């Protein structure tokens, strides 16, 4: 019985929001942003977007929990839904449903508050991970997301792992 429970837990872990196996192998490439890099949204960013990003950043360091939407634990789509809900913007709860909302945009045109979608499962391009753009300038896009291995953190799209896993960007505001 213990073996079955262990197998179920391990399989749920690997099929959750982000594939931890690949994250661990690239751990040195994904780093938590320090104040030095923690840039604020630009002055031209709408107040609603600034508030969404600010609220999402309050969860930085929160551990990953599948289905979580609180400081006790958070998953990637839970972070998006919670941050937008603070501004009375209701979005679907799953990454797959989120990936169909809003307008598709070219990655070169992303702005703060846009959503980035990733396929992190090996040999599968189905979207299973999402983050919110926190900072964007030519050639440099940072986003906040909930990673299974490190919890809520800010990463850079230029990191090899995220660059290769990237699928699409969407603007919901």
TrEMBL record:
Alphabetized Pfam families for the sequence: NLPC_P60 (PF00877)
Q: Which InterPro entries match?
A: Murein_DD/LD_carboxypeptidase, NLP_P60_dom, Papain-like_cys_pep_sf
Which parts of the sequence belong to the NlpC/P60 domain?
Answer: 46-173
Q: Which PROSITE patterns match?
A: NLPC_P60 (PS51935), PROKAR_LIPOPROTEIN (PS51257)
Q: Where is this region: Disordered?
A: 26-45
List the biased-composition ranges (Polar residues).
Answer: 36-45
Cite the SUPFAM superfamilies for this sequence.
Cysteine proteinases
What UniProt keywords apply to this chain's record, in alphabetical order?
Answer: Hydrolase, Protease, Signal, Thiol protease
The family database entries (PANTHER family) matched by this protein are listed as: ENDOPEPTIDASE NLPC-RELATED (PTHR47360:SF1), MUREIN DD-ENDOPEPTIDASE MEPS/MUREIN LD-CARBOXYPEPTIDASE (PTHR47360)
Q: Which family does it belong to?
A: Belongs to the peptidase C40 family.
Q: Which protein is depicted?
A: C40 family peptidase
State the organism of origin: Psychroserpens luteus
In the record, what lineage is assigned to the organism producing the protein?
Bacteria, Pseudomonadati, Bacteroidota, Flavobacteriia, Flavobacteriales
């Amino acid at each position: 019985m213990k073996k079955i429970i262990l197998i179920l837990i391990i399989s749920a872990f690997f099929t959750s929001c982000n594939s931890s196996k690949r994250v661990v192998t690239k751990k040195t490439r994904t780093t938590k942003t320090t104040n030095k890099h923690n840039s604020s949204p630009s002055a031209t960013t709408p107040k609603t977007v600034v508030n969404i990003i600010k609220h999402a950043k309050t969860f930085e360091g929160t551990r990953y929990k599948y289905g979580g939407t609180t400081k006790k634990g958070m998953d990637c789509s839970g972070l998006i839904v919670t941050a937008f809900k603070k501004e009375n913007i209701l979005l679907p709860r799953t990454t797959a449903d989120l990936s169909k909302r809003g307008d598709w945009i070219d990655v070169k045109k992303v702005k703060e508050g846009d959503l980035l979608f990733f396929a992190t499962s090996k040999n599968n391009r189905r979207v299973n991970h999402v983050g919110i753009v926190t900072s964007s300038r030519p050639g440099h896009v940072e986003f906040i997301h909930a990673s299974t291995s490190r919890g809520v953190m800010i990463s850079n799209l230029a990191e090899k792992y995220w660059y290769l896993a990237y699928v699409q960007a969407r603007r919901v505001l």
